[in-house]
Amino acid sequence: MEVKITVNNSGSLRIEGDVKLFDASGSQYDLAGRTTIKLCRCGASQKKPFCDGMHRSVGFQSTCEAFSLPPEVK
Asked: Domain spanning 1-59 has what CATH number?
């Protein structure tokens, strides 16, 4: 299954598909078989990197519309 990432306005990053998630030291998170997870964008979650809905309590506001990136410079 292809991985799909949705940037939710004023909310989380919703990730669907067969994904593996690692911390900065290379340890893998146990996703308990989930094929959909939500990652925090607001910084207020008590379960980082996962979203716990705190964006609603802290009034996080963000609207993101898709655009094309310029070619990568090598």
From this structure: 3.40.5
